[in-house]
Amino acid sequence: MQTDVLGIVMSGGRGTRLYPLTKERSKPAVPLAGKYRIIDIPISNCLNSDVNQIFVLTQFNSASLNKHIVQSYKFDMFNGGFVDILAAEQTPDNADWFQGTADAVRQSIKHFADFNVTYVLILSGDQLYQMDFRELLKFHIAADAEITVSTIPVSADQASGFGIMQIGHNNRILTFREKPKREELTSLRSNLPDVAPGSGGPREYLANMGIYLFRKDFLIRLLTESTAVDFGKEVIPGAIHKHRVYAYLFNSYWTDIGTIRSFYQANLDLTGGLPQFSFYNAQMPVYTHPRFLPGSKMNNCSVHQSIIAEGCILTGADIRHSIIGIRTRIGGGTTIKNSIIMGADYYETTDKLQENADSKTPNVGIGNHCTIMNAIIDKNARIGDNVSIINAHNLQEKDGENYHIRDGIIVVPKDSFIPNGAVI
């Protein structure tokens, strides 16, 4: 039975820090874990929580995201559920695009105001986590909250990148500071005795996860009476002294996939024996576009601590601590370490492969006798034979021809061509 909740997934940001993966797609449309897209995470969390009426708000580079949603999420006519796209639009009343998260929801009120739901759940489209929103709803109702903000404990090293809050009796939010400076953190420390320390030290600060629950009528009134454009920067800080705003404490795995480094690390962490985020949880499955691909074929390969998605053809490759995406072809004698190969959107036909051979054009995939380390190879890339993608000069940042380096990680964009013998 569905809950009395409408889900709204914010997916309109430019994703500039994930460039070049966001050169031709929005951040939520970036491939994840070999076969998924980032947007599949919040949508799956909704469906697993009986929230089956979902709007996805889009704006920049949305074609790929729109196509994925249309192909992936289809409901029968008796279900009553949907995952629909609300694209930014210019109207006679408003000639502006979405100016921020709150403004995006405000401009979309006309599309959901008449829905027969009591609550509206606002989610980010670019995070990796598993949450049962039914527990969030129970907390919201028990606290008699007007706004509930999902929070997660973080260390001092992380705190300056988030909205940080302090809470009082029954988790009511008393203070909210957006991205405080390091010297401001002392006054924002929270007493969280049951929270285990993280890799960055004690997790003494409550961070905003960008997940908000409102009563629908309250949300509509709040936004129509305000000109605030962003929930985290304006709406929540402005509401804590006027309304009942509470913090829901979440203490499981959660990461914001905002940069090339965080995206790279979140993916490779999935290859661990017991990863913090599991795609193998039968109670919380992650849904995506069903492609009906054959099982992967591996001939004389050595594979260690890696994920191989379906539909791959690997011949004589040595693959270690890597993710190999759908329809990937890898040639003989190739070594791949600590890398993400996103795969391909299509198979090349036999005739096309012959045409490539005649014109000495590399096939889609990875050629023979290549070495790829600490890299992200986006979809449909053509990597020739004897190519070394190893960051030979140990650079941290660079924009080259058909490749970019971000935080020491080499990124080969979608549809790129790397010729035989190239060294990067």
3D structure, described in words:
By secondary structure, the chain is an alpha/beta fold. The protein folds into two domains: 5-269, Spore Coat Polysaccharide Biosynthesis Protein SpsA, Chain A (Alpha-Beta Complex), CATH 3.90.550; 297-418, UDP N-Acetylglucosamine Acyltransferase, domain 1 (3 Solenoid), CATH 2.160.10.10. The protein contains nine helices and 31 strands. A hairpin with a 2-residue loop joins strand 29 (403-406) and strand 30 (409-412). The radius of gyration is 23 Å and the shape is globular. The termini are far apart.
Helix content: 10-25%
CATH architecture of the largest domain: Alpha-Beta Complex
Number of strands: 31
Largest sheet: 9 strands, mixed
Work out the count of structural domains. 2
Number of helices: 9
* Overall average residue pLDDT: 91
Structural class: alpha/beta
First-to-last CA distance? 54 Å
| Principal-axes shape call | globular
CATH topology of the largest domain: Spore Coat Polysaccharide Biosynthesis Protein SpsA, Chain A
How much of the polypeptide forms β-strand, as a percent range?
25-35%
What's the CATH H-level superfamily name of the largest domain?
Spore Coat Polysaccharide Biosynthesis Protein SpsA, Chain A
Work out the radius of gyration.
Answer: 23 Å
Low-confidence stretches are none
CATH class of the largest domain: Alpha Beta
List keywords for this structure.
424 residues; alpha/beta; Spore Coat Polysaccharide Biosynthesis Protein SpsA, Chain A; 2 domains; nine-stranded mixed β-sheet; seven-stranded mixed β-sheet; 9 helices; 31 strands; globular
